[in-house]
Amino acid sequence: MLDSTSKANEPLDIENNFALILTATICVDNLPRVYPAEKSVREQQYLNTLNYYLHNHPRLKKIIFIENSGSSLNALEQATKNNPYQKQVDFISLNNNLSYGFKGKGFGECLLIQEGLKESKLIQTVTHFGKLTGRIYLENITQILETCPANFDCICDYKDQGYKFKNALSKQNNITPFCDTRFIAFSWKFYSKYIESLHLQFIEKHPNKGFFIEPEYYRIIHSLEKEAKIIKRFKNEPKFCGVSGHSGGKKYGGKDYNSFSEQLKYKFRSTTRQLLPWLHI
After folding, report:
1. Which residue segment(s) compose the domain that 75 sits in?
2. pTM given for the model
3. Are strands 240-244 and 255-256 parallel, antiparallel or unpaired?
4. Which pLDDT tens digit goes with each residue over 64-96?
5. β pairing state of 128-133 and 18-24
6. In degrees, to the nearest 5, what angle opens at C-alpha 94 toward C-alphas 102 and 157?
7. Where are the beta strands (DSSP E) in the chain?
8. What CATH number is attached to the domain comprising 81?
9. Closest C-alpha among 79, 189, 69 to residue 129
C-alpha cells in the first residue's frame, strides 16, 4: 500500500489516491429479513448503481465491486464497455455470505471488505478508500470527498446524540450511539490497523451474539479520536438515492430515498447540518 502520510492542508487526491468500494450480495437465499429477496431485482439494482458511477462523478476514477454470494458478475462487467470517463473497475466474486448469515449482515459486510481487498489490484494503488452500500448511490459523494484532507484516517457520520431522544420517545433504552455505515471512508493504514479484524475479534469474544456493524464501528472510531485524524461529521448532508433494504413496510420491504417523505427529511437535515453543525442526528 502507498504511504498515506501527507500535509494537513493538502486536499485528498481523489483521482489517484481514492477507490470507491461497492458492496453487493446478489443472492440472499436462506438469509432472513433481507429485502428485496428476488435475485433478479437485486442484480438490476446493483447494475443501476454501477452505471450511475460510470456515467457520473468523473473525479472518481477507481471502483472496486465486491460480491459475496458467488453470483455471476457478467452483466455488471458488460456494463463497463460503456465507460465514458475510462474508470478502472475491479470485479471481485466471493462465496462466503451464506456460511456466516447467522452472525448478521454486518459481519458479512465486514468479511466481504476484508476478503475482497485481498484480491483487489486497485486497492494497491490508493491511500484511501470508501465503502458504499451497492444498491443505493450517493449523489453528492464528490462534494463530500472534496472536503477531505489528504491525511485523514476516517470520515464518517456520527449518530451519537439523537439516539437519546429516540430512547425517550420509545421509553426504551436499546438504541445506542453509532456510525452511519451506508458511506464511510478510511485511510488504508487506519483500516488495516484498527478496522480490518474488528468483526473477528467481536465474534471471538462473543461467539453467541450477532455482530452489529454500526455501533461497533462507532465504539472503536470514537475511542481513537485523540490519536488519529477522525472527521466525525460530513460537512454536506449525504444525499442517498434508490431503495435500501433495512426497513419494512414499503415496496420490496425497503426505504425509498426518492419518496416525498425521505426528500423532506433530507432537506430538513441538510438545513440543520448547516445551522447546527454540532447536532448529530
Report:
1. 14-241
2. 0.89
3. antiparallel
4. 999 999 999 999 999 999 999 999 999 999 988
5. parallel
6. 70
7. 18-24, 62-67, 88-93, 128-133, 136-138, 154-159, 178-187, 230-231, 240-244, 255-256
8. 3.90.550
9. 189
